Amino acid sequence: MTRLALASRVGLLALLGLLALLALLAPGCAADEPPLFGPPTQSECPPAGSTLTWDNFGNTFMSAYCTRCHHTELRGEARHGAPSFHDFDTAKGVRVVKEHVDETTASGPAATNKSMPPDGAMPTLEERQQLGEWLACGAL
Q1: Which run of H or E residues covers position 105?
Q2: Which residues are CB-neighbours of 45 under 8 A, at least 6 positions away?
Q3: How far is Cα 106 from Cα 116, in angstroms, rounded to an integer?
Q4: Torsion-angle region of residue 108: left (phi > 0), alpha (psi -120 to 50) or beta?
Q5: Distance set, CA 71 to CA 29, 37, 76, 122, 123 (Å)
Q6: pLDDT in tens, the chain (140 residues)
Q7: 17, 20, 38, 119: which could form a disulfide with 113 (CB 3.0–4.6 Å)?
């Protein structure tokens, strides 16, 4: 190996080491942030069914806590980081990703997930439990 090749390799290794060190020391890195998705809540639909529906619960909950970011009419920066196709202005939109909603927002016997909403008005524990039930019953 020539001196030039050896120097190039040493320089590359030094650069990679420096980048790795900077990544570890960077403020606000992902290791400091709690995970977005928690465990499934294991909420269950009551044997007799639920009285919760889109019309008497889901729409009100989503409008109060979710659709400021998760709405079909919002684009780009107006979504405040909400992923595409996670739109909660319809029951169908919620049903498509109900596991994600459960693992970020609902409460049940196994877990209470509170990563959503990230700010603003927050649902009560009772509302999170109702969300878990409504999702477990099919979000109808």
Answers
A1: helix 98-105
A2: 133, 136, 137, 138
A3: 9
A4: beta
A5: 28, 20, 11, 18, 18
A6: 565 554 455 444 444 444 443 444 444 444 567 789 999 999 999 999 999 999 999 999 999 999 999 999 999 999 999 999 999 999 999 999 999 999 999 999 999 999 999 999 999 999 999 999 999 999 99
A7: 38
Contact status, residue 93 vs residue 87, Cβ threshold 8 Å: yes
Instruction: Please calculate the CA angle 100-64-95 and round it to the nearest 5 degrees.
Output: 30
Q: Minimal CA–CA distance to 86: which of 108, 122, 62, 107?
A: 62
CA distance 102 to 79: 20
DSSP strand E in 16-128: where?
Answer: none
> Cα–Cα distance between 103 and 140 in angstroms, integer?
18
